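Revision sheet: structure tokens.
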Amino acid sequence: MVCGGFVCTKNALCALNILYVLVSLLLIGVAAWGKWFGLVSSIRVVAGVIGVGTLLFLVAFVGLCGAVKHHQVLLFFYMIILFIAFVVQFSVSCACLALNKDQQNRLLEVGWNKSEATQKDIEKTLNCCGFSYVNYNGSCAARCFYNSPPSCDTCSSIIQRYAGEVLQFVGGIGLFFSFTEIFGVWLAHRYRNIRDPRSNPGAFL
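Predicted:
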């Protein structure tokens, strides 16, 4: 049997979904590890990453069950969900790659103002204070704030050094996984329309 037949397509679809399961477990594990060791204090960030990991795990589980059982309904819903995920992820990845400096700054400032817990995490990790200016009469989680005299850089000046590279990296990774998703849609569609040779022994002759 040449590759591209029933067994080969089934194995490829199973392997792709096993990869998705591993990635989902990695996302959940990293988020839980970061929260446990106090690296990330924002509940929203941790919950978001765990939510994405759980959703990916469920989608991969549906795809894996559909591939193993050659279940038409599961494979259909798997295709639909994976195609929606492809559209969303492809759009977000392209947006990350297309953002200019001004758009990056506005996006970072919006994210900064949404969560005080995230602000403290960034200040503590990057050793900086404030987004666009340092208020020495306020409070700050950075080590530099407690020097005598205090001397800290703004967080925006530090983040902007790496924001472009990070967005390029995130966009590239997102594009890569979006193409694996459209590949999964194609595999699932092909697999649904291949007849199971076990249901017709004469197909081997």
